[in-house]
Write a structure and sequence with these properties.
single chain; 2 domains; 13 helices; 6-stranded mixed beta sheet
């Protein structure tokens, strides 16, 4: 069986995610050094609802969690065939693949957030829209000066742009089009041309990073293509800041490359739910769905042995 590790993006944080993981004997040795390396008090920030979703905090926290979980899996002999990440999760996916060391991935996340915060226009954000076909969503975006930032499936996308504009149209979309709209706890218009300056700045950061051989391919969320070189990683990680993500295509390519088992590092299980909705013939679970890491390990071993 072929295992694909999924790494989530921002918005899936919970106030108890770090205490829960630090209580796991197999994860704590992997996670604690990553938290200590952050330029802020990771534990205090993660448990403060006013701070844990801020871009500068959320990105390194999410990468640290995913990197630590994946390192714990490897230490227990779990073999990974593919990795893929949603937004900032694509950086985590490189830690899974071993193309960057876990500690460096957290440092790169800190710098990514900084580049994005410096480039982002004020009062912009993102909202998820479900139940509207993509053609209609693109038309709505064009009409209101927004951008389609992420395609999750044929009737599920993420819009980005001025927060006031998105708030002004969401009720009409729900009432007139039957859409389900969720305003995301993200303060920057990720994956849109508004952040082209961040792409330029972050590319320089990535070019100075230390890259290693890949243990497995990383599927780029730009188009699902497998990345197995530092040049490819640098290009995709830089471009995805200001270009839309084709997450549906990424999941399709994972299946085409033989993935039959999917495991989401957490926090949350949003990517797991997307896989279940898209494919009926695969096994997909998230760490957050288990009572313990041991339970997740037992399930993974039963599915991949």
């Amino acid at each position: 069986m072929s295992l694909c590790i999924l790494c989530p993006g921002q918005g899936s944080q919970t106030l108890d995610m770090l205490p829960r993981l630090l209580a796991e004997p197999l994860i704590e040795p992997q996670l604690a050094p990553l938290l200590h390396a952050m330029p802020f008090d990771a534990m205090a920030v993660s448990q403060n609802p006013a701070e844990c979703f801020a871009n500068a905090h959320a990105q390194p926290l999410i990468v640290a969690v995913g990197a630590a979980v994946s390192q714990a899996l490897k230490a227990q002999g779990i073999h990974v065939n593919l990795s893929a990440g949603y937004s900032i999760g694509e950086l985590t996916a490189h830690a899974v693949a071993g193309s960057v060391q876990a500690l460096e991935s957290v440092g790169l996340a800190v710098k990514r957030a900084r580049c994005m915060d410096q480039a982002a226009p004020p009062a912009h954000g993102m909202m998820a829209v479900k139940g509207i076909r993509l053609e209609k969503l693109h038309a709505i975006a064009q009409e209101h000066g927004l951008a389609v930032a992420i395609v999750n499936d044929e009737q599920h996308g993420v819009l980005a742009g001025p927060t006031a504009v998105m708030k002004s149209i969401c009720k009409g979309m729900e009432r007139e089009l039957g859409a389900h709209v969720v305003h995301l706890n993200v303060q920057v218009p990720s994956h849109t041309p508004w952040l082209i300056d961040a792409t330029v700045a972050y590319r320089r950061t990535l070019e100075s990073a230390s890259w290693a051989p890949f243990d497995c391919p990383v599927l780029s969320a730009l188009d699902g293509s497998p990345v197995e070189s530092s040049a490819g990683a640098i290009d995709c990680l830089a471009r995805q800041i200001s270009e839309p993500l084709q997450w549906a295509r990424t999941l399709d390519l994972a299946q085409e490359m033989g993935a039959t088992v999917y495991f989401e590092t957490g926090p949350g299980n949003s990517l797991t739910r997307m896989v279940r909705e898209r494919f009926s013939n695969v096994q997909a679970r998230s760490l957050s769905e288990f009572q313990s890491f041991d339970g997740a390990l037992s399930w993974l071993r039963s599915q991949t042995s």
